[in-house]
């Protein structure tokens, strides 16, 4: 016991000598370190000895030794948080000295140790961030700041700091969103406002460059410019609208639809008020985006239609009609898709809806004629001849210039036993197309000429076509065709779309000629037929009244040379005359 008391007394003596050496009158820190070391040697379990020696080391700027003593103190008294905080501060001082000397890697290691010991103290992390920035490790900086925002309370300064890191990494969209977040937390943040203004000005310059490229027809370059504008300012609805139009012109309909949907959404959301920022109106811009969205749905449907994807085209047109139900061209296009799928009733319903919206549209009249003619053919094949004739009549009402409709109705009238109506339709067929023999074949296998001659015995074709009935039928038909031609079609807001322009190719039974020109052509053809008939009669008369080919005058015998040439050539045709039972030249 006396030995322990002696050691303790001697250790306390050395400890007191060390404290005296660190007093403000002497400042002998090396002597203090020596005294504290002697005391620790005598009593190594005394925590205060290590703490005092660490303080002496700090005065000598020996951070490594000071940190080692505080580590021992923390091991002896782990519950004492003061020692751990003091250890973290030592690492911070060490890191700061190394950073000032330009040793960023070593400084980062010290700051990291300090942050690990005291993770809630933000300045230690900030110094680590400074070292990472000096080393050019911006991705690590970004990861560190993002971790702070996720685990701690977000602040405008942190969002602004992360925005600058995003800008340094050329991640402009993320930079913009962080600036907006900073301004929402602190509207008067000067640094965030300046950064936002720079982003907006850069975006607007790229937008103007994109417009210039588009006007010159350089759509791909314009697309690259507007993409840059959207990276710097992704909250401008008219940027998305412009890019969507470019995508639509480039036939990238999926991307165009996405941009138009975003434009419509942004017009409804609005933006937060910031200094120097102009607000977008949701009125006209939203309407333009909605119209472009409908046009893109339609164009996409036209592309699907051209590839035979009729069901997909119907789905797209359904979306377009849902957005805009007052456009007749959309119903026409969907009716065309139903027609291609042989869904006649759905096609007819769409055409009728289009007619209600635009009764003077000739494209709708042509389609109604085709669909009624098709339905009439189905009725005819089912031997419902009167219903078929009624359908053909409706088709003729909508388009009176197609020969096939009159021919089909004549067949139905023939089957139904209505001879007078059959005769009039036969006359109409000959008026519209007097030279096309294939188009004038009836269900009986006779052409229209034979039919009229059978219905009107004793009359020639010229007499039939010049009679009062035929002239009346022709006048009525020409009047209907002229009225059909002069029917004015209002211009649709959507304009002529793919399916609307493709009327002739979509429905093969439609005529390619102008109705008035076709009637004039039919009149000329009928006159040519009459002239041909008169010429044939004159030829027959001349043949019956011809002079005999045999001559009674003496003939000279050919020379041998002429006979050889005559034998080598093909014998010409000579007329023969019956005399008794034999044939003589």
Report on this structure:
The chain is built from 29 helices and two strands. The chain is mainly alpha-helical. Among the domains are: 137-252, Serine Threonine Protein Phosphatase 5, Tetratricopeptide repeat (Alpha Horseshoe); 382-488 and 510-540, Serine Threonine Protein Phosphatase 5, Tetratricopeptide repeat, CATH 1.25.40. It is rod-shaped.
Could you name the key traits of this structure?
585 residues; mainly alpha; Serine Threonine Protein Phosphatase 5, Tetratricopeptide repeat; 2 strands; rod-shaped
Structure at a glance:
Strands 1-2 form a two-stranded antiparallel sheet. With 585 residues, the chain is mainly α. 72% of the residues lie in helices and 1% in strands.
- Main beta sheet: strand number and arrangement? 2 strands, antiparallel
Number of strands: 2
Q: How much of the residues is beta strand, in percent?
A: under 5%
Span from first to last CA?
172 Å
Under CATH, the topology of the domain at 382-488 and 510-540 can be stated as Serine Threonine Protein Phosphatase 5, Tetratricopeptide repeat
* Secondary structural class: mainly alpha
How much helix, percentage-wise, in residues? over 70%
Report the C-alpha radius of gyration, rounded.
51 Å
The coarse overall form would be rod-shaped
- Unreliable stretches: 270-280, 436-446, 488-522, 553-585
Q: Assign the CATH class of the domain at 382-488 and 510-540.
A: Mainly Alpha
Largest sheet: spatial strand order: 1-2
Q: What is the CATH architecture annotation of the domain at 382-488 and 510-540?
A: Alpha Horseshoe
What is the overall number of helices? 29
């Amino acid at each position: 016991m006396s030995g322990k008391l002696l050691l303790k007394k001697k250790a306390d003596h050395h400890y007191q000598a060390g404290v005296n050496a660190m007093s403000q009158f002497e400042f002998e820190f090396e002597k203090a370190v020596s005294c504290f070391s002697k005391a620790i040697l005598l009593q190594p379990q005394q925590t205060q000895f290590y703490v005092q020696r660490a303080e002496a080391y700090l005065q000598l700027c020996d951070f490594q030794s000071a940190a080692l003593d505080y580590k021992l103190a923390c091991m002896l008294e782990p519950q004492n948080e003061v020692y751990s905080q003091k250890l973290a501060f030592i690492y911070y001082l060490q890191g700061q000295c190394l950073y000032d000397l330009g040793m960023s890697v070593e400084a980062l290691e010290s700051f990291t140790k300090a942050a690990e010991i005291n993770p809630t103290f933000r300045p230690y992390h900030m110094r680590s961030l400074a070292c990472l920035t000096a080393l050019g490790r911006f991705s690590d900086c970004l990861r560190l700041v993002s971790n702070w925002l996720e685990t701690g309370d977000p602040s405008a300064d942190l969002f602004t700091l992360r925005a600058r890191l995003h800008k340094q990494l050329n991640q402009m969209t993320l930079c913009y969103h962080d600036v907006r977040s900073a301004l929402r937390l602190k509207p008067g943040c000067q640094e965030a406002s300046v950064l936002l203004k720079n982003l907006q000005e850069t975006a607007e310059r790229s937008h103007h460059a994109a417009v210039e490229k588009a006007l010159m027809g350089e759509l791909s370059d314009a697309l690259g410019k507007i993409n840059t504008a959207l990276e710097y300012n992704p909250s401008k609805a008219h940027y998305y609208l412009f890019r969507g139009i470019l995508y639509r012109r480039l036939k990238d309909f999926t991307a165009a639809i996405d941009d138009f949907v975003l434009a419509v959404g942004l017009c409804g959301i609005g933006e937060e008020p910031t200094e120097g920022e102009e607000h977008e109106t949701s009125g006209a811009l939203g309407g333009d985006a909605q119209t472009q969205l409908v046009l893109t749905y339609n164009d996409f449907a036209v592309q699907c239609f051209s590839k035979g994807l009729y069901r997909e085209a119907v789905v797209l047109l359904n979306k377009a009609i849902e957005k805009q139900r007052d456009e007749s061209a959309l119903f026409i296009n969907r009716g065309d898709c139903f027609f291609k799928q042989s869904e006649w009733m759905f096609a007819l319903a769409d055409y009728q809806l289009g007619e209600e919206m635009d009764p003077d549209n000739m494209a709708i009249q042509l389609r109604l004629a085709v669909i009624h003619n098709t339905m009439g053919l189905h009725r005819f094949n089912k031997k419902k001849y009167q219903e078929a004739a009624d359908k053909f009549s409706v088709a003729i009402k909508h388009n009176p210039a197609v020969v096939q409709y009159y021919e089909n109705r004549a067949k139905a009238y023939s089957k139904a036993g209505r001879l007078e109506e059959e005769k009039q339709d036969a006359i109409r067929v000959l008026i519209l197309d007097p030279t096309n023999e294939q188009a004038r074949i009836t269900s009986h296998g006779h052409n229209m000429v034979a039919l009229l001659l059978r219905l009107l015995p004793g009359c020639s074709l010229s007499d039939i076509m010049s009679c009062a009935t035929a002239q009346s039928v022709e006048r009525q038909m020409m009047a209907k065709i002229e009225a059909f031609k002069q029917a004015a079609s209002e211009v649709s807001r959507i304009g002529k779309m793919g399916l609307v322009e493709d009327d002739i190719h979509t429905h093969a039974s439609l005529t390619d000629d102008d109705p008035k020109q076709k009637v004039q052509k039919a009149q000329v053809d009928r006159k040519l037929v009459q002239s041909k008939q008169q010429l044939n009669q004159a030829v027959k008369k001349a043949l019956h009244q011809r002079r005999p080919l045999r001559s009674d005058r003496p003939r000279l015998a050919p020379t041998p040379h002429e006979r050889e040439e005559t034998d080598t050539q093909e014998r010409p045709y000579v007329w023969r005359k019956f005399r008794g039972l034999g044939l003589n030249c």
